[in-house]
């Protein structure tokens, strides 16, 4: 898995990817809620998605 920590640019990056047709994964994880496609735990926000080869990638606001 590869993760990018985007800080304040997180929401803009999620919208850009969504606009380009990226489908985000949805996981039911203990202690995490959902805000649409975004997983939320306190101040932490993260999305996961797969590349064409099936590798799991993620973006976070940390």
Would you write up a description of this structure?
With 62 residues, this protein is an alpha+beta fold. It has a single domain, classed as 2,3-Dihydroxybiphenyl 1,2-Dioxygenase, domain 1. The chain has one helix at residues 10-19; strands spanning 2-5, 24-25, 33-35, 38-41, 44-50, 56-60. Strand 4 (38-41) and strand 5 form a beta hairpin. The chain is globular and about 30 Å long.
C-alpha end-to-end distance = 16 Å
**Nearest-integer average pLDDT:** 96
Largest sheet: 6 strands, mixed
Structural class: alpha+beta
* Overall domain count: 1
Oligomer: single chain
Total DSSP E strands: 6
Name of the CATH superfamily: 2,3-Dihydroxybiphenyl 1,2-Dioxygenase, domain 1
What are the secondary-structure elements, in order, as H or E? Answer: EHEEEEE
Query: Which CATH class is shown?
Result: Alpha Beta
Unreliable spans are none
The number of helical segments is 1
Write the CATH architecture name: Roll
CATH fold label = 2,3-Dihydroxybiphenyl 1,2-Dioxygenase, domain 1
Output the radius of gyration.
11 Å
- Given the C-alpha coordinates, what overall shape results? globular
List its salient traits.
62 residues; alpha+beta; 2,3-Dihydroxybiphenyl 1,2-Dioxygenase, domain 1; six-stranded mixed beta sheet; 1 helix; 6 strands; 40% strand
């Amino acid at each position: 898995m590869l993760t990018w920590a985007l800080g304040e640019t997180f929401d803009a990056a999620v919208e850009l990817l969504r606009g380009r047709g990226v489908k985000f994964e949805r996981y039911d994880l203990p202690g995490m809620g959902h805000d649409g496609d975004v997983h939320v735990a306190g101040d932490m926000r993260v999305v996961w998605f797969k590349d064409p080869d099936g590798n799991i990638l993620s973006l976070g606001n940390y």
